[in-house]
Amino acid sequence: MGVVKHVVCAMSGGVDSSVAALLLKRRGYHVTGVFMKNWDSLDEKGVCTTERDCEDAYKVCRQLDIPFHQVSYVKEYWHEVFSNLLREYQRGRTPNPDIICNKHIKFKHFYQYAINTLGADAMATGHYARTSLEDEEVFHQRHVLPPQTLFRDRFEIRNPVRLFQGADLLKDQTFFLSQISQDALRRTIFPLASLTKDFVKKMAAGAGFEHVLKKKESMGICFIGERNFEEFILEYLEPRPGNFVSIETGKVMGEHKGWFTFTLGQRARIGGQRDAWFVVDKDITTNDLFVAPTTNHPALLRDTLRTERFHWIAEEPSAELIRTKMMDCQFRFQHQMPLTPCTVTLNQDGSVWIMTAKPLRALTPGQFAVLYKGDECLGSGKIISLGPSEYTLQQGRQRLAGKPLTHSSTSQSEPLTWSGKSQSEPLTQTNSSQPEPLTQTGISQPEPLTQTCTSEAEPHTQTAATKIEPLTRTGTSQTEPVTKTGATQTEPLTQRSATQKEPSP
Ligand SMILES: Nc1ncnc2c1ncn2[C@@H]1O[C@H](COP(=O)(O)OP(=O)(O)OP(=O)(O)O)[C@@H](O)[C@H]1O
Predict the structure, then answer these.
(1) What is the C-alpha separation between 20 and 125, in angstroms, rounded?
(2) How far apart are CA 331 and CA 348, in angstroms?
(3) How far is CA 377 from CA 155, 171, 256, 300, 491, in A?
(4) CA of 217 relative to ligand 1 center, distance in Å
(5) H or E segment at 30?
(6) Ligand 1 atom at minimum distance from 102 CA
(7) By the 8 A CB rule, do 347 and 353 touch?
(8) For 396-444, what is each residue's pLDDT tens digit?
(9) 211-236: per-residue pLDDT in tens?
(10) DSSP secondary structure string, 92-107?
(11) How far is the CA of 440 from the centre of ligand 1 (A)?
(12) What is this model's ipTM?
């Protein structure tokens, strides 16, 4: 008989990861359950949900008779996820912290902790997703250094591991996994890949995990949880009050407390206005929020966007894109939104243009454009600029036809797009580089990454950076993932009270 393989299962105290651990145990692996603590504060009702979740995860491990550890990534979460979120808001974007958290915390720090510190053969999570590897193949992976060039060597011998949607399409979480590294994916098992949520709940009931079944589905931002988001974020960002301005008439419709928490397409409650208005654009230099009177206003409809350097999960970039310069696939920018057919063009710097088959409502900078081919998730790129809206195009056509223009295009309130240029300018002028289809020469000449990553690589101003850095975080010993001594299966969890004392952000 071969050596029993060791799998570290990330356990949140929820039903999915509890059943994932159960399945791994049944498959005969040596399983260790690990709870991650990434945020330490009380929720709005003064309850420390992290403590309760950790307690629940510990209880499941006891029921399964497997070792349990707790690890703290509070500091890493603050620096690599939350600071990024605040910076994105300050740029007028709407970030997706859950995707960033998977990339940096679960599938980087946690992954390294599982493999290097605990010496596991693989890690596992309760995500509804699937890879192209069978469990056994996961254990046979050798560590190969990631490529240093912009695009991976196409003659690389090892087969890339692919990420596929889980069997339960309603629960599929590949959207949130679209930024994770090939190395982490190679060593990851998703035990729930072929199961539906209903079935998972039945298994949990059968295993006696009543305490996790009673819990509500986790909502809100990964690890930060449910709370009044506007109030919460304004504890960290200085409010920037300004006006609501009608995109059609340029008229000031009312005032707002700050544009950070407004996202495109969101309904704006404007004091004194009985009808609903919807946010269609922001001008972060004047603090104006542009609003339109209907939910599907043409100012919200767009069919073109550009991303930052695209993260390809298996092939970098996809072989079809290299061969044909363009690729047809499917696109979504929100979890669970229906997939829309699109055409992708690759730029020399690794970013992509995406053109959707039909205009979509509220494409939003800061969100991730996630691409699919059939049930394979190809990867994602952060949206950094948008093409013109239908409304802008209508205005342009009127201009060309010599028809009188509506108020907004003649008034001085011409809105600025996210890229800081006039909205009525054609797409090719709002971005520094035009869509450049990738040429063969472009592929074989690896470019240094420093030239390619545009906005994310740009550090934010010192003032902003210092503002969001809380003093309380320094001096804590949280850099090192700590395996709580008291958190092993045999000992009580009392040691966790040490981390509880850590100051909240
Ligand atoms: N605090 C945590 N500690 C350890 N692992 C975690 C933690 N939070 C999430 N995970 C891992 O990430 C997976 C996905 O988490 P997420 O909260 O997005 O989904 P979920 O469907 O609510 O999962 P669960 O039912 O296990 O809580 C979990 O199944 C678990 O493996």
Answers:
(1) 7
(2) 21
(3) 22, 14, 39, 26, 42
(4) 10
(5) strand 30-37
(6) 12
(7) yes
(8) 999 999 876 655 433 333 333 333 333 333 333 333 333 333 333 333 3
(9) 999 887 665 566 566 667 777 888 88
(10) T----HHHHHIIIIII
(11) 42
(12) 0.98
